[in-house]
Amino acid sequence: MNERLSAKLKMLPESPGVYVMLNSEGQIIYVGKAKILKNRVKQYFNAGRKPEKVMAMVSNVDDFYYIITQSEIDALSLENNLIKKHKPRYNILLKDDKTYPYIKVNLKEPFPYFGITRKLKRDGSKYFGPFMGGVNAKDTLEIVNGAFGLRPCTVSIDPEKPKKPCLNYHIKKCMAPCAGLCTESEYKERVNGAIDFLMGDDEGVEDILRGRMEKFAALEEFEIALAYRNRLEMLEKIKLKRITSLNKFVDIDVLAVATNGLYSSLNLLFIRGGRMQGGKNFALEDAEETDGERIYEFIIRYYTSSVEIPDEIIVSEEFSGIETLSEYFKCNYGKSVRIYSAERGVKRQLLSMASKNAEDYLEKEIDKIKHKDDMTIAACAKLKEVLGLKRYPKRMECYDISHISGVDKVGSMVVFSDGEPDKASYRRFKIKTVEGSNDFACLQEVLKRRLDKLGTDEEDKFPMPDLIIIDGGKGQLSSVNEIFAPRNLDIDLISLAKREEEVFTLKSKEPVIIDKRDYTLKMLQRIRDEAHRFAITYHRTTHVKHNLESELMKIDGIGKVKRKALLKEFGSVEGIKAATIEDLMRVDGIGEKHARAIEEYFKNE
Question: Which of 292, 248, 293 is nearest to 272 (CA)?
């Protein structure tokens, strides 16, 4: 611990607030909140055994600052805002790529529409879900609309300008509020029935569906009767999800954590309207010491990111701060949430189920995720150390040149962010100034054109990289440095030679040799090979078009505009050869005379 840190620790106040940890480059790596700043922050630097991730975070702390708040609730809000803004490396990151559907209804409208969405917003609408585990949102919506005659469309409704009722009204699937055939109060009564069903009241809906099925069967409207029978079968599937010992109007989330000392996972089970809706797993990237702290951090991150807040949150381990969280939900979202750990009964069984799921996910899936991290983020961090780079290489750009004997020369730029391809940032270059086969000059042209973007209006599309990698050896690196060095850019520059996989830097004449089994070298190979692939693909496309244009130039009357139109339409010589007179005449600018000239040329070729 440096002297500056030691001095600042002694001056910490005994107040609630937020503390922000910084690395040597001034980047925010961790944000936390504390009831008493002095006690909490000192814990990180006291002697004693700590989890590996806490030790890793502390070893990277070069400085910190804090913000005093009026209360712990204010600290919680500020902490959450800072984490959302800066996404610090050592705070919990929730890794779950699945989004689940919800049924949404805006009760502020006079004739509400029930629809499906995957995005929850704090917009005053009511949301039901998430739908998972065999309960289909579309099936449920079909039951809602079919049983209660609610409108399945979003057409605007103006009582002064009634519309003609559609087919849904005539087959008794809609009350036709757009046609003025029901009052607002009549429609609202049906909406309330639909909400009761979505909150867990199945019995009334079953009676409605069964009655209509029997009615249409008696009228020999068998197709409609069959549709109602299908809805009854869907309803039966939903009823099977009922947990009979739970209040059918309660919404509960169940949270359980598993950890192996290095990594953690969390399982979240959803109970909606007394029904088990399913669950999902999260891999936690955290620097927390106890399961209680992990759950506390998860609740802050997850429930403040536009998701549905339940009535109860059952947790596998209680923790200090439960009262603070409950007060936070009440102050910020106007909802009373009970957070507790169940000791017995069906809720304890649900906790046991969540714990088993979290343990299974930790054992079978987390290792795969960590292996990916080893090949990406961890490899980037190690590359900084191995090559003595100026900073962690978050954005890496790699360049390569492709041509055939100096013809149709092109360059490629591929971008990796945190060790993974960022394909939206890839760029291609046609070589404009170099004659003949000169890879060194081609690289110089490409790098000059790319670096000229810095400090211009185009820098948003071409942000400054942390590391530039050249596909090649010492010669390519020296050549590029001729245009690189005079700019005095704060960017690292290296090259990777194919034969021995040697890494050349500007710091030494001797190459850096990285073990061929090392993920750091494998990452450099991936970006180098990707640049090579991207360059070759672009060269082939360019070469084919060039050859085709050259071929078409031999045909009388086919100028530049017509050549481009033909290329766009058919893409290749084979495509043009196979085209009929009629196909050719469909191309802009190609009349019968030109079409016959093209056909004649390729016939005699």
Answer: 248
